[in-house]
């Protein structure tokens, strides 16, 4: 697969991942019916796995490493934060905590998109 095709594949997985994340998160806030379905759980985790594989493949193909690309290191750190906030949404029974975590995850998603688009680090 060439670089452009892989990049578009990665972007499609990212869009699907975010869509499934919001579907599950909002479902938990409202009723939990969709979030509790096994098919949604499997689709979400399968998409995230393919997103990770495509990200690693893209970095290898482009010769990028987090130690030499500060924006990539920041993106990886933000992904861990996003995962952590997703766990808060999934495990917490308090709606206020879930909403705050969802807002935090939304900010992180925007920051990840910015880093991916500009390749310009915020801090590092």
Automatic annotation (TrEMBL):
Stored Pfam families: SirB (PF04247)
Transmembrane segments: 6-27, 39-60, 72-90, 99-117
Family matches, as InterPro entries: SirB
Source domain of life: Bacteria
UniProtKB keywords: Membrane, Transmembrane, Transmembrane helix
GO cellular component labels: plasma membrane
Protein name: Transcriptional regulator
Native source organism of the sequence: Pseudoalteromonas luteoviolacea
